[in-house]
Design goal:
Distance between the termini: 33 Å
Strand content: under 5%
Helix content: 55-70%
Shape: flat
Number of domains: 2
Order of helices and strands: HHHH
Structural class: mainly alpha
Oligomer: single chain
Radius of gyration: 19 Å
Length: 116
């Protein structure tokens, strides 16, 4: 991504976050490259290899998302609102604000999440 503020002026945390975000962008680009190449591959074995490689890049991207969630409070809050929900994505925020977040209920107790 690059630094918009002189490197020396940035905190160690800001530089570390930049590393994570830049790596995430690179992983997502790789997912896109492999996905497109697999889509047009005429050789089934090559297609399988490209899909395997794409899936590895997805794993790396998800690991970086999790690192961001653990290290940036706002990522954690947004992920808790949107990830693993069933409601339409454009309605999840409104539902969460009304106290009925799009989170799945507990199948055993029939109650929603107890997380704040």
């Amino acid at each position: 991504m690059g630094f918009y503020i002189p490197y020396a002026e940035l905190s160690a945390k800001a530089r570390t976050v930049d590393n994570a975000l830049t790596s995430l962008i690179e992983e997502l680009e790789a997912v896109n490259y492999y996905n497109q190449r697999a889509d047009v591959a005429s050789d089934d074995t090559l297609k399988d290899v490209l899909i395997h490689n794409r899936n590895e890049e997805i794993e790396h991207a998800v690991m970086l998302f999790e690192w961001l969630r653990r290290n940036i409070e706002e990522f954690d809050g947004e992920m808790r609102t949107y990830i693993f929900t069933e409601a339409p994505l454009t309605e999840v925020e409104d539902m969460a604000a009304e106290g009925g977040a799009g989170e799945k209920s507990s199948p055993s107790l029939g109650i929603g999440s107890l997380r704040k």
